[in-house]
Amino acid sequence: MHQRMSAMHSGKALTNAVFRFVLVLVLPAIMLLIMVKGLEVTNHINLPVVDVATQVIQQDGKPTYREVALPHNYTLGSGFSYGQYSLVLPKAGGDTTAILLPPFRDTLVMRTGGELIWQTAPVAYSREHMMPRFRYQPVYHELPNRLFNGENLSVSIDIGSSGGLRLPQIYVGTPEEVKPVYHRQYWSQIGVHKVMLWLTPVITLFYLMLWWFRRQNSEYLYFALGTVCWAMTNMTFTISNLPISQHIYWMLSVSFQPLLTLFMVLFLHRWYGIQARKLEYGFWRVSLLLVVASFVLYEWDPQYIWWRFNESFLRGFVALSAVYIGYILLWQACLRHSLSALILAISGLVGVYAGVLDSLDGMQLLDMYFPLSIHANLLIFLTLCGLLMYRYVSALNKSEELQKTLEDKVVEAVKRFEQEQSIAHESEKQRALLTERQNLLSDMHDGLGSQLVELITLLRVKSVGREDLQLKAQQCLNDLRLILDSRNPLFETQFTVLLGQWRSRIEPVLEASGIDLVWSLDICDEEMHLSAQQKLDLLRVFQELITNTIKHAKDATRVMFCCQMESNSLHIQITDDGKCSEEQDDSDHGYGLASIQSRVKRLGGQCHFQRGTSGASTEMIIPTGKEAGNRT
């Protein structure tokens, strides 16, 4: 089943490719045929026509006359050729008689009785002579009726051309009859030239700007250069009334043809993404070589060698390039299943076909009376502009769709992130509450719980005095206050405030015991990097030391508390002047001092005790740097 489906798919693809191939080959030919039929307005002219003339041929210095039918072609030898004819023009009504010549390639000089009465353009007798005219354009002229002898006017006509001789049909009538026909012919055939006269620089500038802003798209640059070369090769079509000598005209119109095909090849390679660097280098070398050789040979021998070079090498290279361009268009139209490739192939082959027909007409193998390339190039330009606009709109629509999709994904991601953040925040909140509850229970168990157990134990001993019970109860109360203060936000930053609060609670207890407190404090809160739990442990150490002083320092009258900050550490010294007996010294190695040493060690500090008959002293060094806050 799978093989059968694959075979059907392959057959359908092959049928589609063949259909595209036939369409691209046949449709341009049909379009050109329609174009030719539309441009052949001569067949629809309803005016009196002079279609018979007498040709004058010089043989052995003697004129020979023969009747010829118009239009008439005659080629004599090579180089510049001239033909002489005599004919009779009928007179029309009114003051003047209007004559119309359909589009032709040559220069016509009209005389009567040896007097010049009209000339379509200066005859190019030499290569330096000017050529200020369109080629292939229809010609209109009015002859005063006073020149006529009765109803007719006998005239002699000289036809001059650098490529051959041609005497067209001549239509006559009143100006009111001939002018509409002339304008209709002019604008149907030369009007496109006028349009291209303005479109060529606009199109060139447009593509150059596209390339300037999107330099990675070099196809725009090559198309602009190709447009310039096309304008140079068709100067008599695209530039009106510019005095161009034969020399300049031929060098520009012929020598730029290889560059035109070169840039069109490079354009198609970039447009379709074809990687053929070696072939492109070959086109570059051959094109530049032909251009240089054309200039050199024209200066050396334009009458024979240059003409042979132009008719063989130049035209041969252009023809081969046109075949290759047609191959690219055909191949891409069959390979790519896109409408743009099909449209570009059809319009491009219209240009290729038109160039071939114009070349045949230039070699006088066809009688078309008008050029086709100018119309085909206009079609190509408009097609490319439409494809560029389609490419831009498609890219813009795709960009907007991608942007909308991205915005939807961002909104969805933000919602999902907010939901996850909310869940994480709630989870963190629950974790923080659980941690706080555990810390509170641990603090109450380790601190207040042990104090209450000790108080209960003392109550069971009948020999314990009231002052000892009162001191132990006060110690339980102070420990409870420390636990509550540790939950205060001030515990996070201001250690000096905590010391002040602890002093306000411990100082009345010392005064009740007849002990004076000497306070010395020199620390900076900004340099304290202790956590709340570490501050609580430190305050409990202070409280335990003061409690030991009250309980065990006999006859003590003063206790000195000194706390200073040096080199990211606290230097603490607590000294009293009480007396300590040997029995008391042994008992002091109990729970209180062990608890102090354990807390100091957990803070990463050092503790040193000194006792004697003249007093007791405790010295501690507690680190306060950033590494201290990270210690667990």
TrEMBL record:
Transmembrane residue ranges: 195-213, 220-242, 248-269, 281-300, 312-331, 338-356, 368-390
Gene Ontology MF terms in the entry: kinase activity
Coiled-coil region: none
CDD domains (UniProt xref): HATPase_UhpB-NarQ-NarX-like (cd16917)
Enzyme Commission number(s): 2.7.13.3
Catalysed reaction, written as an equation: ATP + protein L-histidine = ADP + protein N-phospho-L-histidine
Domain Histidine kinase/HSP90-like ATPase: 536-616
Record's keyword annotation contains Nucleotide-binding: no
Annotated keywords: Kinase, Membrane, Transferase, Transmembrane, Transmembrane helix, Two-component regulatory system
Protein name: histidine kinase
Natural source organism: Grimontia kaedaensis
Taxonomic placement: Bacteria, Pseudomonadati, Pseudomonadota, Gammaproteobacteria, Vibrionales
